[in-house]
Amino acid sequence: MAYFNLIFLWAIFYGSHTFLANLDFKYWLRSKLGNAYKRYRLVYSLFSTVFFLFILIYGGSIEKSYLLATTDLTTYLGYMFAAFGTIILVKSLKHFSLSTFAGFRAHDDLEEQPEFVRKGAHAYVRHPLYAGLLLIFLGFFFFDPILAALIHLICLIIYLPIGIYFEEKKLIQLYGKRYIQYKKEVPALFPTKFRA
């Protein structure tokens, strides 16, 4: 039952993540909140962070059911994948204002269109945040190869095509032909070239 709860929590998290980032919902919300909408990004970031951490803590509270033997190799792979994932996450955020991204700077993200970034990690993959998170979850599974860690990873893998579809639908609305061209030239998650 605990594993079904874990899957259910991830479904709610990913579903809310997609819904709350939807442009139609944001326009509707701004029409209701007025100037207070400028704090929406901060509330969204706090909600997502707390919910994400709650799911990880809940997963960690489930009695461990090991799927693989823990060895020096699995531990090494865990550290390696998690380190690469973390590096990708950090590099992908390098060209963004963290205060704006997290919502610490009050702003209307429907009026202040973020810069269209194609440099850094975004020159190799369109969604480096997702790629980094995928590697971190993979590393977490190898480091502690339990059923809960595998569920975390599988739920993310199932969500990625859905999340990317809706994210790119929004980005095409924002950037139009520039993003469509970018989509043709740069892969979503796995780089096909290493010199941008």
From TrEMBL:
<dbReference type="InterPro" id="IPR007318">
    <property type="entry name" value="Phopholipid_MeTrfase"/>
</dbReference>
<protein>
    <submittedName>
        <fullName>Uncharacterized protein</fullName>
    </submittedName>
</protein>
<dbReference type="GO" id="GO:0016740">
    <property type="term" value="F:transferase activity"/>
</dbReference>
<keyword id="KW-0812">Transmembrane</keyword>
<keyword id="KW-0472">Membrane</keyword>
<dbReference type="GO" id="GO:0012505">
    <property type="term" value="C:endomembrane system"/>
</dbReference>
<feature type="transmembrane region" description="Helical">
    <location>
        <begin position="123"/>
        <end position="143"/>
    </location>
</feature>
<dbReference type="Pfam" id="PF04191">
    <property type="entry name" value="PEMT"/>
</dbReference>
<feature type="transmembrane region" description="Helical">
    <location>
        <begin position="41"/>
        <end position="61"/>
    </location>
</feature>
<feature type="transmembrane region" description="Helical">
    <location>
        <begin position="73"/>
        <end position="90"/>
    </location>
</feature>
<feature type="transmembrane region" description="Helical">
    <location>
        <begin position="6"/>
        <end position="29"/>
    </location>
</feature>
<keyword id="KW-1133">Transmembrane helix</keyword>
<feature type="transmembrane region" description="Helical">
    <location>
        <begin position="149"/>
        <end position="166"/>
    </location>
</feature>
